[in-house]
Specification:
Shape: globular
Order of helices and strands: HHHHHHHHHH
Number of domains: 1
Number of strands: 0
InterPro entries: TM_pro_TauE-like (IPR002781), TSUP/Inactive_protease-like (IPR051598)
Number of helices: 10
Organism: Pseudosulfitobacter pseudonitzschiae
Mean pLDDT: 82
Radius of gyration: 16 Å
Structural class: mainly alpha
Distance between the termini: 24 Å
Protein name: Probable membrane transporter protein
Membrane topology: Multi-pass membrane protein
Family: Belongs to the 4-toluene sulfonate uptake permease (TSUP) (TC 2.A.102) family.
Length: 249
């Protein structure tokens, strides 16, 4: 890939990192959407998405933890249940005819979730103080962890709507748990993926620096409750287009 293309794509990925990190996500579904639209092969898409997720979710974890929005007693059991399955999923190389519809379906789901989330943005930072059920959250974490490693999506687009719809946590608490969940599972999925591929695309290095800048801006927006609704709508449309492409083209 030419240097100009690497920088141009990196700039787009940085904007995605900014948007997703504002709600505690790593941005994998957005990275996958862009790379898929550019016809990047799946063997490159998955390690790139997971690697950038580690960078962005790692910084988001730091910012949300510092702001007091991560309830570690609730997060740790979910993470411990999910990481082994994320590693297992990351080590599985799916046939294209299975990978494409699975990933396409998750991208469409993530787009619908983003649209739903922005429609309720006026209350998405409400604090809910209640005990998260251990059995249900651990079971969900394990299943989502496996899917995150298998597809390269960090799992936040599946975990967050579950917590919000179930009323297990308020949006800020959900964002904090999602950030640390995505970080842990992206590390595990990337490790499993590396065991299979034994290589990491070189573009990850410059892109990591660029998405780190995006995540700095995004987490500042999230912590300070600055709305980014119009931009998230555009991002949801991009994810939807990519998901449809994976499903039908």
């Amino acid at each position: 890939m030419e240097s100009d293309s690497v920088l141009a794509i990196g700039a787009i990925l940085a904007v995605i990192a900014m948007l997703y990190s504002s709600v505690g996500h790593g941005g994998a579904s957005g990275y996958i959407a862009v790379l898929a639209l550019l016809n990047v092969v799946p063997d490159v898409i998955r390690p790139v998405a997971l690697s950038l997720n580690v960078v962005v979710a790692g910084f988001a974890t730091y910012r949300f933890a510092k702001a007091g929005f991560i309830e570690w007693r609730s997060a740790l059991p979910i993470i411990l249940a999910s990481m082994p399955l994320a590693f297992l999923g990351g080590g599985i190389a799916l046939p294209v005819e299975i990978y494409r519809p699975l990933l396409g379906g998750l991208l469409v789901f993530s787009a619908l979730y983003l649209l739903w989330q922005t429609s309720r943005s006026q209350t998405r930072f409400d604090v809910v103080s209640r005990k998260i059920p251990l059995l249900g959250s651990v079971g969900a974490g394990a299943g989502i962890g496996f899917l995150s490693g298998l597809t390269g999506i960090g799992g936040g687009v599946l975990l967050s709507p579950l917590f919000l719809i179930s009323g297990w946590a308020g949006a800020r608490q959900t964002a904090g748990i999602a950030a640390v969940f995505i970080l842990a599972n992206s590390v595990a999925g990337l490790a499993g993926n590396y065991v299979v591929l034994r290589s990491i695309p070189y573009e990850i290095l410059p892109w990591s620096g660029m998405v780190l800048v995006g995540s700095f801006i995004g987490t500042s927006l999230g912590v300070r409750i600055l709305p980014v609704k119009p931009l998230i709508w555009l991002l949801a449309v991009a994810a939807m287009i990519s998901g449809v492409k994976f499903l039908f083209l």
